Amino acid sequence: MGAFRYPIVIHSPDDTRKHTVEVLADTRATYLEELGYQAGLCRKLRLANGRVIEREGAEVVVEIDGARLTTVVIFGNPDTEPLLGAVTLEQFSLVPDPVAWRLVPLEALLMWTNALGRR
What's the domain range around 26? Predict the structure, then answer.
């Protein structure tokens, strides 16, 4: 599976400005602050080497292929590669197609108890 870049649009909270970002599939705080976002949350994150770090983040309006939703964005260091993570992909019902280098819609699974014979 190869990695690829994909454009997403970050909208300012008042919807007067926007910034297109090519993501690798948390984004830096620099342009988010320019759009008017401020850190409003803090998350502990475990790195691949087992070390735990803390990073600030915010709820941000993101647009992917014309669909707009609010999602949590974790701010990285200035040299951090922008990355489109699993939570945002799931919120938009998208999955990466690494062969065609695009995001494709995914049918979400709805668990309906009557379908399982429960009432």
Answer: 6-116
